[in-house]
Amino acid sequence: MEFFEKIGKKASEAYKITADKTGKIAKETKLKLKINELKTQVNDIYEEIGKKVYEKHIREENISIQKDLEEECTKIDVLSDEIDNLLKECLELKDKKQCPKCYKEIAREDKFCPNCGEKQTKEPPREIEILKDLENSKVKEDNKKEAEIVKENLQENLKNDRQEKQEDKNQENNQEKEKNNLEKTVEIESDVKVSENRNKEK
Length: 202
Fold this sequence. Notes:
Strand order of the largest sheet: 1-2
Structural class: mainly alpha
Order of helices and strands: HHHEEHH
Number of strands: 2
Number of helices: 5
Largest sheet: 2 strands, antiparallel
Shape: elongated
Radius of gyration: 30 Å
C-alpha cells in the first residue's frame, strides 16, 4: 500500500508541475500575442505620423511636434508603457529580469549581468510588489475574503523569507568567527613552535 501511495504522490506532483508549466506557457503566449497587437498599433501610428509629415512637406509647411503630432506621440507613449509592463510579466513567468544596460534576459537572482558584467540593483521580493498591488487596487465585495487570504499567505512567505535570511546571516557570522579562531589558534601554535626551536638552539 505504501508503495502505491508513493507512486500516487509522485504522479500527483508530476501532474502539478506539468500543469503549472502548461499554464505558464499559455499565459506567456497570450501576453506575447497582446504585445504583437500593441506593436502593430504603434506601427500604424508611425505611418500616420509619416503621412502628416509628408503632407506638410508637399504643402511646404513647417511641422510642429507639439501642435501637429502631440496626440499621436501620446498614444505611442501609452502603448509603449503597456508593452513594457507585459514584457515584465513575461520575464516574471520565466523567473527572469532584463539587464538595464544591455537589455539581455538574465536570471532574477543574478547580481551581475553574465553578458555585460553590469551590477544589478536588488529587486524587492515579488510578494511585496503583489501586496502593494492588492492594497492599491479596489477589491470587489465577493473577492474580499479571498484577497485577505492571499495577503496573509504573502505576509507569511515574507516573514519566513526574512527568518531564513537572518539564519543564513547568523550561520555566515558563525563560520567567520570559527575561521578567525582557527587562524588565531594556528598562529599561536606556530609562535610556540618557533620559541621552542629557539630554546633548543640555545
